[in-house]
């Protein structure tokens, strides 16, 4: 699942977030009484009356927490917990087991199956609310950590680690379904001058604004990240090379005409862009796709910057001779020398 970074994991009480809790119990009366109680406390709820229905609801739309009855016909709560916790495609979903009173064995089994906590029946609602809140605090922290691990701190867009993972997922999806996928690599021209002339904080401001401009230019399904220092990457699923070049050109123009404001003045900056797309007879892996975009970017630099170069265009092929060799050697990062 592809999730944009959000600020939803701020430190605040769970109820403010309208967290959704899945209540699973084979007795409709039990479900109802818990549902009413939790909704009165501001939570959203969904309900399932058996294990299979619970698994189906979780797969459709993962809840933020599951309140899971152990004793159910066909598939019991322990099995449901085991399946949910072993499904790597799911986010962390805290599970609170509802176990029979005073049964240590039942609690141990539930925790062993992957439950994160338990509450004994008959349910004490004050305790239930406290346990739900405690679990959701952990859930919020986990979400925050996940966000931090995939977000570039300066610009708020995805970081390199997340871009690499997304690219792998998207490339696999594209080749499996034979849907096009394009990659655009953006590099700010003469960015070092900004630091040298106006200082590092001004450089930081420019990078943040470039990220914002690119964010405004991409579609919802595209993924934008900071690949390195002053280099950004956009992944464009379902997009053929032509359309990706059009997008890159539009983004380039937006940056070119933008007035970058920083403490102490304004400045202009341009972008060089390399674009590559799959399917292409010379591209068989996602590494080759990135390499192709990178080579096009380096050519854009050497041709004078502030331009978009398309992999395998006539211009590209005249200037970059040894593309395929380099894919095999995996040595230099570009076929065209940078004209610095
Ligand atoms: P070119 O047109 O060839 O891309 O030239 P350039 O100056 O943009 O490229 P170069 O690679 O020579 O310099 C990139 C600079 O970006 C050097 C580095 O200090 C700076 N930089 C990298 N990350 C950051 C950052 O987070 N903040 C700031 N302010 N500067 C950064
Ligand atoms: Mg640069
Ligand atoms: Mg660079």
Task: List the defining traits of the structure above.
340 residues, disordered C terminus, Rossmann fold, binds 3'-deoxy-guanosine-5'-triphosphate, elongated, alpha/beta, 2 domains, 12 helices, five-stranded parallel β-sheet, five-stranded mixed β-sheet, binds magnesium ion, Alpha-Beta Plaits
Provide a brief overview of the structure:
The protein is of the alpha/beta class. The protein is built from twelve helices and twelve strands. The protein folds into two domains: 7-148, 3-Layer(aba) Sandwich (Rossmann fold); 160-328, Reverse transcriptase/Diguanylate cyclase domain (Alpha-Beta Plaits, 2-Layer Sandwich).
Structure explained in plain terms:
The chain is elongated. Mean pLDDT is 91; it is low at 1-12 and 325-340. The protein is α/β, with parallel strands linked by helices and 340 residues long. Strand 1 (20-24), helix 1 (28-40) and strand 2 form a beta-alpha-beta unit. The chain is built from 12 helices and 12 strands. Helix 7 packs antiparallel against helix 8 (200-217). The two termini are 41 Å apart. 47% of the residues lie in helices and 19% in strands. It has 2 domains: 7-148, Rossmann fold, CATH 3.40.50; 160-328, Alpha-Beta Plaits (2-Layer Sandwich), CATH 3.30.70.270. The strands form 3 sheets. Strands 2-1-3-4-5 form a 5-stranded parallel β-sheet, with helices on both faces. It has a 5-stranded mixed β-sheet with strand order 7-8-6-11-12, with helices on both faces. The longest helix is centred in the middle third of the chain and has 26 residues, at 125-150. Bound molecules: 3'-deoxy-guanosine-5'-triphosphate and magnesium ion (2 copies).
């Amino acid at each position: 699942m592809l999730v944009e970074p959000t600020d939803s994991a701020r430190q605040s009480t769970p109820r403010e977030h309208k967290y959704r809790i899945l209540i699973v119990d084979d007795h409709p009366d039990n479900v109802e009484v818990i549902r009413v109680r939790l909704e009165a406390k501001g939570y959203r709820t969904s309900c399932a009356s058996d294990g299979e229905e619970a698994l189906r609801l979780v797969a459709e739309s993962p809840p933020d927490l599951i309140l899971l009855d152990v004793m159910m016909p066909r598939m019991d709560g322990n099995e449901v917990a085991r399946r949910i916790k072993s499904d790597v495609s799911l986010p962390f979903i805290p599970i609170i087991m509802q176990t029979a009173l005073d049964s240590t064995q039942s609690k141990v089994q539930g925790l062993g199956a992957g439950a994160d906590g338990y509450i004994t029946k008959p349910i004490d609602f004050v305790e239930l609310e406290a346990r739900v809140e405690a679990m959701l605090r952990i859930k919020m922290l986990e979400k925050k950590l996940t966000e931090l691990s995939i977000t570039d701190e300066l610009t708020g867009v995805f970081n390199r680690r997340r871009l690499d993972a997304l690219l792998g997922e998207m490339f696999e999806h594209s080749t499996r379904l034979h849907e096009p996928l394009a990659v655009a690599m953006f590099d700010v021209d003469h960015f070092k001058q900004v630091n040298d002339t106006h200082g590092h904080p001004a450089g930081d401001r420019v990078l943040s604004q470039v990220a914002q401009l690119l964010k405004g230019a991409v579609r919802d399904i595209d993924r934008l990240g900071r690949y390195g220092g002053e280099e950004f990457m956009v992944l464009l699923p379902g997009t053929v090379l032509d359309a990706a070049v059009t997008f890159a050109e539009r983004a380039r123009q937006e940056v070119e005409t933008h007035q970058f404001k920083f403490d102490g003045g304004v400045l202009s900056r341009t972008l060089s862009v390399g674009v590559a797309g799959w399917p292409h007879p010379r591209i068989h892996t996602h590494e080759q796709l990135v390499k192709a975009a990178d080579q096009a970017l380096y050519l854009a630099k050497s041709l004078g910057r502030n331009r978009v170069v398309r992999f395998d265009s006539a211009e590209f092929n005249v200037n970059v001779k040894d593309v395929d060799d380099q894919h095999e050697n995996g040595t230099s990062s570009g076929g065209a020398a940078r004209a610095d």
